[in-house]
């Protein structure tokens, strides 16, 4: 099969969602003296080759973990920072971006299982004060489920600016989730609830505030109690207004004006339940494994993570995840994430026969085109599926 990747995947790694199926390449035949991987096993040779040449113009480092019933592979390449050129840390912490939404969805579904949240209830019931300033515009109820699967019709909300340069100038300032939500409410809905599936972080900003309202505890505390601790994610946390990555990490860089700016330190509290998490590839692998095995969210709530809304044209997103079908019929459930300096992915087949986690220190993490290193990793990771 001719090598190709759907362009929507390229945009997804910048925007945090994909809107079309993945396409994979047929593995090249092994060279002389090279043993082909067993059916279902990760293609170690292809994965190692996907990381060659770092750092380059597109990425300064990359961390990868591929696992499943057929075996596992992990590796890293690139540098820890451009100033010293030290080797990249394979177990480094990184900004996980919108993969945070997998954790948030799991928290909400656990609260639903405990009877504290009704997925069919309007979010206006839980957060009436937030909608009060523009109540007339929100007469149509927006259900909790519609927030989870991005069919709420809400608008994005307040931000420091649409360009990197504007956001960079405010990187040490604090924008609270309530301020973000206030901006969305003031603008009114873009669509009637349930009509259109549009990936927007505002849905999960509302969910983070909903979690705090129904539990009386901070979002970070509930995420730790209900998801991180049960999954064994010991190196994952939410920094809040702290701009630093606390543990060992590889620096992130963004190309701007022909120069690479170090964007490692950045206050991202406004993203909170939608993208503020710091994690490791090993921890995200633990998350997807525990989650898909039913160790975090009980049935029937777990089905929400593998159910795309019906009757919505082009819908691919579920609660916290997104569905992709490869040309040979394999279905992958995954979540992408991007913060300046960092691209990430966490995903797996439903039966965990193949898992994939990576973090790529992209020099244009929110660009419209897929990072070439990330593309090579995806192509290699999806080879040889059983």
Structural class: alpha+beta
Largest sheet: 6 strands, antiparallel
Give the number of DSSP strands. 10
Q: Unreliable runs, pLDDT <50, ≥5 residues?
A: 1-35
Please describe what this structure looks like:
The chain is α+β, with helices and mostly antiparallel strands and 386 residues long. It is built from 13 helices and 10 strands. It has helices spanning 7-15, 44-50, 100-113, 123-126, 128-131, 144-148, 164-169, 177-187, 202-215, 219-231, 272-275, 281-292, 372-381; strands at residues 59-67, 73-78, 94-95, 253-256, 259-262, 278-279, 322-325, 331-339, 342-349, 355-362. Strands 2-1-10-9-8-7 form a 6-stranded antiparallel β-sheet, sandwiched between helices. A two-stranded antiparallel sheet has the order 3-6. The chain has a two-stranded antiparallel ribbon with strand order 4-5. A hairpin with a 5-residue loop joins strand 1 and strand 2. The chain is globular, with a radius of gyration of 20 Å. Mean pLDDT is 91; it is low at 1-35.
